[in-house]
Backbone:
C-alpha cells in the first residue's frame, strides 16, 4: 500500500516527540516504517525524521487497536477511515482536541466536576504529558477564558475548571517526580500575581522531562525566590505573568530579580502577559509558549551540565550577586 509523503512544512514532530505522544518506542516506529511503509516521515538534511500531526493521530489509533488485540501487520497499514471503523466508539469518540474541548465545556456548564475531572484524566492517560498540555489543556483554558470574556461562562465555571486542571496536573507531576534529577527549576509568580495555573503546567512539563522543580506558587516575595534559587543551585527561575499584571511595575520586579539571582541561574518569563512586557533586561529570557518551553527543556537535557544557559562564565565574590 502506498502512502503520501508529507511536505517539510507539514512535518514538525521529531521521532522522540512522537514516541512520547503515542507511547510507542522509536525502535517500533522505525520498524513499522521499514515493514509497513507507515509512518512515512520527512527526512531532514541531517537525516532526522519529522512527522505530521495527522500521522501522530493515526499512530494513537493504531496503539488503541493493538490494545484491543489486533496484530500490527493488520492495523498499521490501514488508512485512518478504516482504523476508525475498526475501533469501538468509546475509543474514537471525541478523538480530536476540538471535540474533547467541547465536551469538557458542556460538563463545565452543567457544573459537573466529576465529569470534568474524568475527561482530564482520560485525556492525559491517552495522549501523554506533552500532547495533553499543548493540544488539550492549553486550548481548553484559552477557549474558556474567551467564553468568559464574551459572557457565555461565569467566573464560577472558570474557577471550577482551574480547580480540576490543577488537581490533575499535580497528580501527574507527583507520579513522575521520583524519576526527576539534575539542577532544579524554581517556579514562582511575583507579588500581586493571581494566575498560577501556568506554573503547574510548566512544572509538569519539566518533571515529564526528568527535571526537578520547586514550585513556590503565587505572590512570592523576590527575596524568597532568590534564596530558593541559591540554596538549590537552580538551573533557572521561571516566572509567569498574566495579561492583567503586564505592567511597568512587573518589568521593574523582573529586572530586579534578574540582578539578584546567582550567575548560574537563568531567568525565564512566560504566561499570557510576557509578550507585553517592555524594557526587560536582555538577559531575561522569554518563553513564549509550551513548544518553546519544551525546546528549552530539551536543551537542558542535552547540555554538558555547566548550567549556564546563555550566561557567560564568570567569577563572583561574596554572595555571588550581579553588580
Residues:
Amino acid at each position: 500500500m502506498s502512502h503520501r509523503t508529507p511536505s517539510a512544512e507539514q512535518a514538525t514532530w521529531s521521532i522522540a516527540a512522537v514516541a512520547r505522544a503515542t507511547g510507542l518506542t522509536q525502535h517500533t516506529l522505525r520498524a513499522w516504517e521499514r515493514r509497513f511503509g507507515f509512518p512515512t516521515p520527512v527526512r531532514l538534511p541531517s537525516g532526522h525524521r519529522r512527522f505530521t500531526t495527522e500521522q501522530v493521530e493515526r499512530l494513537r489509533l493504531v496503539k488503541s487497536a493493538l490494545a484491543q488485540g489486533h496484530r500490527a501487520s493488520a492495523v498499521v497499514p490501514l488508512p485512518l477511515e478504516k482504523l476508525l471503523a475498526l475501533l469501538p466508539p468509546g475509543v474514537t469518540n471525541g478523538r480530536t482536541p476540538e471535540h474533547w474541548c467541547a465536551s469538557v465545556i458542556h460538563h463545565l456548564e452543567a457544573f459537573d466536576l466529576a465529569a470534568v475531572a474524568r475527561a482530564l484524566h482520560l485525556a492525559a492517560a491517552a495522549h501523554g504529558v506533552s500532547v495533553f498540555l499543548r493540544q488539550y489543556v492549553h486550548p481548553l483554558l484559552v477557549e474558556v477564558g474567551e467564553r468568559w470574556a464574551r459572557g457565555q461562562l461565569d467566573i464560577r465555571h472558570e474557577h471550577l475548571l482551574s480547580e480540576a486542571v490543577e488537581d490533575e496536573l499535580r497528580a501527574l507531576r507527583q507520579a513522575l517526580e521520583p524519576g526527576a534529577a539534575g539542577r532544579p527549576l524554581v517556579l514562582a509568580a511575583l507579588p500581586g500575581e493571581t494566575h498560577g495555573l501556568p506554573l503547574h503546567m510548566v512544572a509538569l512539563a519539566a518533571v515529564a522531562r526528568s527535571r526537578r522543580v520547586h514550585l513556590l506558587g503565587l505572590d512570592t516575595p523576590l527575596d524568597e525566590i532568590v534564596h530558593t534559587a541559591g540554596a538549590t543551585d537552580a538551573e533557572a527561575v521561571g516566572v509567569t505573568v498574566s495579561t492583567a499584571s503586564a505592567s511597568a511595575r512587573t518589568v521593574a520586579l523582573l529586572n530586579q530579580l534578574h540582578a539578584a539571582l546567582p550567575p548560574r541561574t537563568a531567568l525565564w518569563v512566560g504566561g499570557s502577559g510576557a509578550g507585553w512586557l517592555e524594557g526587560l533586561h536582555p538577559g531575561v529570557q522569554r518563553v513564549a509558549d509550551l513548544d518553546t518551553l519544551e525546546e528549552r527543556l530539551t536543551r537542558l537535557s542535552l547540555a554538558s551540565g555547566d548550567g549556564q544557559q546563555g550566561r557567560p562564565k564568570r567569577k563572583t565574590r561574596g554572595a555571588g550577586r550581579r553588580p
Remarks:
- The radius of gyration is 22 Å.
